Amino acid sequence: MIGKQYAEKILTLAGEAVDSQFDQIGKVADLVFASMKNGGLLHVFGCGHSHMMEEELFYRAGGLAPINPIFETATMLHEGAIKSSMIERMSGYAPYVLDDYDVKPGEVMLIFSNSGINSFPIEMALAAQEKGLTVVAFTSMNYKDAASRHPDGRKLCDIADIIIDTNAPKGDAMLHYEKSGVDAVPSSSILAMTLLNVLVAEIIERFDEAGLTPPVFISGNVEGGLERNQALLQKHKFKVKAL
Fold first, then answer.
1. Confidence bin at 178 (pLDDT 50/70/90)
2. Helix (H) or strand (E) segment spanning residue 183
3. Above 90 in pLDDT, residue 92?
């Protein structure tokens, strides 16, 4: 029965996060729409499990085409989970990673970090701002009193131009098991992904309301899907490294 408790808690928390962050999401949607309608890309970065947010946005049926994921494999779990955690805390690496990507002033970068205390996402935010991008942090403000691991003591929430607060509980665990005393079952990915797709919906609505065809992929598993996606792929394949 505790699994049902998790479902109820996560749905409640997700609903509260959407309600509390909807105005902030609207601001981000306005910025992304303004950039995309002029040929801009939406750049996305996350380390460890936060890298899943890049996968959620990129090359996705029903999702936006002008997405540029910053896929740094050294920060992904399949390259070594322990190594990934160590690199996320390492200072000085992020600017060199970003230099390999085509980013332009006026574009937007989403950075996902549940705690917002590790050096890599913090320095990715700083590097993006230096290149003229607006940085949006998806992070939990429940870590606002946590100590930063960055040399200058700042956290991602101190640097980002706009904050989307996922409100994921500190420690990420949603459930308490009485007999063992264990807290378990994570929440941060579901909350961030929910807010992220709310943002996608709002961006697409802005295209629709402006009378513009939204740059959206359709499923390659439905009739005509691959053919309809070809124009979007041709337009973006030389701008998006991962294509």
1. very high
2. strand 182-184
3. no
In a domain, 33, yes or no: yes
Q: Quick one: angle between helices 81-88 and 119-130, nearest 10?
A: 50
Give the neighbor-by-neighbor strand order of the sheet with 134-139: 67-69, 42-46, 108-112, 134-139, 162-165
Number of structural domains, the chain?
1
Amino acid identity of residue 32, one-letter, is V
Whether 241 is covered by a domain: the verdict is: no
CATH of the domain at 162: 3.40.50.10490
| Residue 72 scores a pLDDT above 80 | no
pTM of the model: 0.94
Q: Pick the residue with more confidence: 74 or 122? A: 122
Domain assignment of residue 97, given as a range: 2-236
Rounded Cα–Cα distance for residues 139 and 117 (Å): 10
**Is the residue at 242 inside a domain?**
no
